[in-house]
């Protein structure tokens, strides 16, 4: 009798969820490395085929918008909008402040594709899934990748609203194997062991400083080290003290995995953080970070960042 009860419990757990019948597909044989490798390339190709059916624009520059920083789209002319939900194999954005669409058009005299909404591992997506849109942009023709993010300020000289050009990053996730390139490598994307020295293009960083001076942004434009935190929790004061001692200037929950994929494919990368809040190192300070605060500051200062990016793209 006990075995019958146990079997019934297992069947109920497998077959019902929230009152709906669930049918589970179980693979009888493990997937081969070759099958996984082909899947990545075929998914990327299928997405590109679909997009090419809906626009003739061949982007030179790819742009990724961080939380609340999607207003650069307002500067894009001759727009063609393609929601992620219509593209084969694409996931959906689940985070407030991320629209979930590609916007193709012209910015600064260049053809661009803007990724208005990005994907994060904390949403439950695999690191390989996060690689998909970057590979699509490159396969469509983009040679440059401009990445923005909303970040917490670690450096004590920063203030909310400042912008930090990313010179280099620290990514513990990659050090413990949670890397977007983990798994079978496809040489059509890039080499097995890519080099990350100089991942953030020095010429683009210098260009950002020049354009920033032209726009009168010297006082709020910095250059520093970005730390990638997996999220979705904000960091404890003890964690922040450690990262500050390591020399990290800004901290956020995105960017590094996207730039690793872009580097793997040979793209020239520029990344910049909008400091939306200051990370506390003292639990008695009474500072509690929240996503609404992040979006509010990003929306307030986003137009300045969009202006900087447009001027940079004009100069490419």
From TrEMBL:
Pathway where it operates: Purine metabolism; purine nucleoside salvage
Catalytic activity: guanosine + phosphate = alpha-D-ribose 1-phosphate + guanine; inosine + phosphate = alpha-D-ribose 1-phosphate + hypoxanthine; 2'-deoxyinosine + phosphate = 2-deoxy-alpha-D-ribose 1-phosphate + hypoxanthine; 2'-deoxyguanosine + phosphate = 2-deoxy-alpha-D-ribose 1-phosphate + guanine
Domain Nucleoside phosphorylase stretches: 61-313
Keyword line: Glycosyltransferase, Transferase
GO MF annotation terms: purine-nucleoside phosphorylase activity
Binding site for a purine D-ribonucleoside: 235, 277
GO cellular component, one term: cytoplasm
CDD domains found in the cross-reference section: PNP-EcPNPII_like
Biological process annotations from GO: nucleoside metabolic process
Binding, phosphate: 67, 98, 118-120, 150, 254
Enzyme class: transferase
Superkingdom classification of source: Eukaryota
InterPro entries according to UniProt: Nucleoside_phosphorylase_d, Nucleoside_phosphorylase_sf, Pur_Nuc_Pase_Ino/Guo-sp, Purine_phosphorylase
EC number(s) reported in the record: 2.4.2.1
Protein family membership: Belongs to the PNP/MTAP phosphorylase family.
Name of the protein in question: Purine nucleoside phosphorylase
Native source organism of the sequence: Schistocephalus solidus (Tapeworm)
